[in-house]
Design brief:
alpha+beta, 5 helices, 8 strands, globular, binds the ligand O=c1[nH]c(=O)c2ncn([C@@H]3O[C@H](COP(=O)(O)OP(=O)(O)OP(=O)(O)O)[C@@H](O)[C@H]3O)c2[nH]1, binds magnesium ion, cytoplasm, metal ion binding, EC 3.6.1.66, magnesium
Length: about 190
């Protein structure tokens, strides 16, 4: 396939996507923080993808990450970036203090398009966990407070995270789709 441009303003996403995909898909990155609409995770990712196709010549992929608290009807969801900036990991813990249920899902939604005339296609991955007081190095977002099977993502070895994460699961679906698609012939026929 043609080289696909991953458009993101987040260098940690680049590190993970590059590590997960290895050399299975030719990827280059463009560091750009695209505007994000309000809406469902799929709507946000598709809209971001359409904006990316206006800027990049050739196939593009974008990603939107969400953190859904069960006790709060899936909020903060796609707005986690702003909650994290405003409250920090400690504040996110305090948000859940009144609730017994501390469970959460990390959700990663990729959208791919081969150009401005094509409908973006969405691939989503989900990781279940529990929100806990911060443990581990605070390198990437809310990793220190998201516990999965006894370890926070910040405590987890990178290789382990990259083999089970929400991002890994979404990229497996993307890879699978690419392996079976007739993308070079008519990708728009496969849009949703
Ligand atoms: O601990 C984490 N482990 C992860 O695996 C992860 N993935 C995303 N995030 C954070 O969640 C927000 C998503 O917002 P987001 O999807 O809009 O990303 P972004 O604006 O940073 O980049 P982009 O939109 O340009 O791609 C941002 O604060 C990201 O730092 C993560 N934190
Ligand atoms: Mg963003």
């Amino acid at each position: 396939m043609k080289t696909c441009t991953f458009v993101t303003g987040n260098p940690n996403k680049v590190i993970e996507v590059t590590a997960i995909l290895g050399d299975t898909i030719p990827i280059r990155t463009l560091a750009l923080d695209l505007p994000e609409i309000q809406g469902s995770l799929e709507e946000i990712a598709r809209d971001k993808c359409r904006r990316a196709t206006q800027i990049v010549d050739g196939p593009v992929i974008v990603e939107d990450s969400a953190l859904e608290f069960y006790a709060m009807n899936s909020l903060p969801g796609p707005y986690i970036k702003y909650f994290l900036e405003a409250l920090g990991n400690d504040g996110l813990n305090k948000l859940l203090a009144p609730y017994e249920d501390k469970s959460a899902d990390a959700v990663c939604t990729f959208a791919y398009s081969s150009g401005p005339d094509h409908v973006p296609i969405v691939f989503q991955g989900r990781l279940h966990g529990t929100i806990v007081p911060a443990r581990g190095p605070p390198v990437f977002g809310w990793e220190p407070i998201f516990e999965h099977q006894g370890e926070t993502l910040a405590e987890m070895a990178h290789e382990k995270k990259n083999n089970l994460s929400h991002r890994y699961q979404a990229l497996c679906k993307f890879r699978e789709w690419l392996a079976h698609s007739t993308i070079d012939q008519d990708p728009s026929t496969r849009g949703e």
